[in-house]
Every structure is written in C-alpha cells, then in structure tokens.
Amino acid sequence: MPTLNLDPGRCLPDDGCTGTLLARVWTTDGPVPGPSVAVVRADGVYDLSAHVATMSELLEQPDAAARVRAMPGRRVGSLAELLQNSAASAGGQPTGPHLLAPCDLQVIKAAGVTFAASLVERVIEERAAGDPARAQAIRAQVSAAVGEDLRAVKPGSPQAMALKQVLQQQGLWSQYLEVGIGPDAEVFTKAPVLAAVGTGAQVGIRSDSAWNNPEPEVVLVVDSRGRIIGATLGNDVNLRDIEGRSALLLGKAKDNNASCALGPFIRLFDETFTLDDVRRETVDLRVEGLDGFVLQGVNNLARISRDPQELVDQTMAAHQYPDGFLLFTGTLFAPIEDRDQPGSGFTHKLGDVVTIRSPHLGELCNTVTHAETAPPWRFGLSALLRNLAQRGLLRSF
Asked: What is the pTM of this model?
C-alpha cells in the first residue's frame, strides 16, 4: 500500500483554524491508551477529556461551540504530528496519537438518491443488474427518456407525480426514481456505532465486488433533538455491482469492514460556518491509482433535490436518536469514465488513494484495500465503556 502524505495545510479548511474544529484522537501518553474528544487550534490539538468523555456528550450541550472555546484542554501535539501518525494507520499499525473518525455514540445514517445525476445512475445500475458492460447502452436509453427534467422537479410535488406517470408509461419507472422524486427519501443505516474509520486509514471494498466507487459527501452532525449543529466529510464506499443486482442487497453493498470513512474533523456551526454554507458546499474528489489512473469529480450541494433539513426531519419522523446521529447527504458524483477496457466504467483497484476535500471542512484521505484484509473493527461499545472506566472518564456522565 502507498504511504500517505497527509498535509496539515490541506487537511484544514481554507480558513484554517478559524472555525470550531472537533476531532477524536487516540491518545497514548497515559497509563491506558484510548480515544479522547479534542479540539484543533492554531498551535496544536488539545485533549478535552477532562471536560467530556464522548463526542456525543459534548454535542448535546446547548451551545457546544461556545463551550469548546472555553475549554483549556491538554495539548496532545501538533496537527502535523497527529497526521503523520494517522497516515501510518493505513497499514494498521499507527504509532503515537492519531486521528479517529470524529464521532462515537452517534448512529451513522445515510440518505441516498438525493441528486438527479446520481439518480439516473441508480436506474442504470438496476437495469444493468450489476453488469458494467451493459451500463453504457442503458445509460443512453435512460438519459434519452429522462434528460435533465429531474433537476427542476421537487420530490413529492404534483410535477414529480406527473413525471412519474410519464416514466411508468415508457417502462422506465424504478425503485430509485420512487425515492428520488417521490415523497419519501431513502434513509438507511450506513455503519454500526464506532465502526467508521478516520483520515489516513484504509477503506474497504469486498473482494467479491468488481464494480465499485467512492461517494464523496457532506455529512450532517445532528443532536438528539434534531438540531443540525455541524458537518464533516464522508466517503460512503459503494459496491455498485452488488446493489445493482438487487436493492435488497443494500446492506451487503454499503456496510462492510472499513466501508465508512469520516473526518478529518467535525466543524460546528458558529459565526464562521452555518447551515447555509453547507447548502452551498462543493466537495472535490480525486482518486489516484498505483496504475497511474486519475479520476476527478465534484459534488455540489447546491444541486441537491432535498434540503438537508428535510433529510433530517425524515430521518427523525418515526425514530429517536438519544445520542444523536450523523447523516450522509448523498452525492452528485457518479463515475462513468473507463478505467480499463472501453465500456467497463470506473472501479476501484487496491492501493487507490481517495482524497475528498471541501472549502469549509478540510480534507479526508484514505487508501483502498479489501474489507476482508483491512484492520478489523474490534473497538466497540463495550470496549469504549471499559476504556473510559479504566481512564476515570465516566464521572462526567
């Protein structure tokens, strides 16, 4: 696997440490190593575990950003040092303190089919039954029938229902179109609590998948009351062939070891960053392969079909999340460039470096491996509780 070079300048947002940037750090300087909530400041990364035991606990505060600014913390090291250690985690053997996915007790949810362009690609996946060789011809057929009409259609509106009738008459209706322009959004659970990986780590694709891709997304940070209080970046690793065979295989396509990457930080809403900034955020993707292949793409939240607040409202309509949740907002990006033979489209290869960056949220960088050989996920809820108890941090609950 390639050695990552995680640059602090690129890891940070364009405005540096101006905003309120929260991280989770695996600390190693005490008698018992373990995860700590931390804040990134201009002069280093500061451990806040003397004040809060978990990220969930902190984000439940009425004004988390103000509280973070008032916490002194204990300096763990420079961001450059932590990033260097985090890059070593791509091989599964990090040394010293390093960055983790910046969430802990929150449920990790995802909304799918929230952009017109990716909606068409989901229809193609379904009709190709997971076969990339058939996708090119089907893409032309579907695009000829659908065109750009979906961009101006508000999901669930009378116009959307009229379009649905036209597509049904042409035999092009799909379960993906149902959630793309119908009244109900697709919301699913992306990963178990604590299963996400952070920047520098490996992301996993199943070894039995031959057609897959990254999904660069803005991820909303939501507290138990349904307030969107910040955002981070995410890679919703997607196995197109498996989901394309049947939507009932969504769990197998989406939830695998190391298939969810988040980070590098949570940026809280404050005077420097708001939900309106999220609504306008542009996310850039770059994939660099060991074979010299380079793929670039853009995800523009301004083109989303459903407002972020609507996605949150639908997620909470009939469920509660007492520790809060993170919500992937979906992606405009759907790679169709041929990587090998013509008509084969894009798919990952082992060793790909996936870089996701946006102006307000910084840069998330990971390498691709098989889910079966990525460092196994072993630090679950019972391990977290034991660790916090051993470190004397449960007193804050």
From this structure: 0.92
Rounded-to-integer distance, Cα 305 and Cα 242, Å = 25
Indicate whether 290 and 243 sit together in one domain.
yes
Tell me, yes or no, whether 260 and 315 share the same domain: yes
pLDDT in tens, 38-78: 999 999 999 999 999 999 999 999 999 999 999 999 999 99
8 Å CB contact between 134 and 156:
no
Q: Which domain holds residue 272?
A: 8-112+185-391
Claim to verify: residue 133 and residue 219 sit in the same structural domain: no
| Shared-domain flag, residues 200 and 272 | yes
> What CATH number did the domain enclosing 320 receive?
3.90.850.10
161 Cβ contact list (under 8 Å, min separation 6): none
Burial class (CB in 10 A: 0-12, 13-18, 19+), 344: middle
Sheet with 202-205, edge to edge strand ranges: 202-205, 362-370, 353-358, 282-288, 294-300
In-domain check, residue 63: yes
- Judged by average pLDDT, the poorest of 22-31, 115-124, 376-385 is 115-124
Q: Are residues 232 and 301 in the same domain?
A: yes
Question: What is the DSSP code (8-state) at residue 62?
Answer: T
CB 236 within 8 A of CB 331: yes
Does 3 fall in a domain? no
96 touches 78 (CB < 8 A): no
Contact in structure between 311 and 113 (CB atoms under 8 Å): no
Q: Do 287 and 149 belong together in one domain?
A: no
In angstroms and rounded to an integer, the radius of gyration of the C-alpha atoms of the chain is 21
Instruction: Write down the residue that tokens 């989406």 correspond to.
Output: 254
Is residue 217 domain-resident? yes
The domain tally of the chain equals 2
Going by pLDDT thresholds of 50, 70 and 90, the confidence category of residue 90 is low
Kindly write down the DSSP assignment for every residue of 279-327, as one continuous string. Answer: HH-EEEEEEE-TTS-EEEEEEEGGG-SS-HHHHHHHHTSS---TT-EEE
pLDDT average, residue stretch 85-103: 82
Contact 365, 22 (CB under 8 A): no
Going by C-alpha positions, the residue among 66, 39, 37, 71 that lies closest to residue 54 is 37
Structure tokens at 104: 């802990």
pLDDT digits (tens, 9 = 90+) for 168-203: 876 778 888 888 888 999 999 999 999 999 999 999
